[in-house]
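Team,

Forwarding the record for the chain on the shared tracking sheet. I've put the sequence and predicted structure together so nobody has to dig through attachments.
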Amino acid sequence: MPKKAPEAASFETALSELEQIVNRLENGDLPLEDALNEFERGVQLARQGQQQLQQAEQRVHILLSGDPEAPLTPFNPDEA
């Protein structure tokens, strides 16, 4: 049975979980399979965080575009 993708967490929550994973992996006490599972989750969280940062950067860029006549519209990450 394939693993279900976890729901996206807030950036801060994902970062906190990623820090916990790094600490557990650095401790070195995990069995190999558990370490691989933790690493896989860490990669997912890192990718999610990077995507959230890119979306925030796009929003800031739009807000600072310098065009005072530009229409203000809600940001939709699916259209970016």
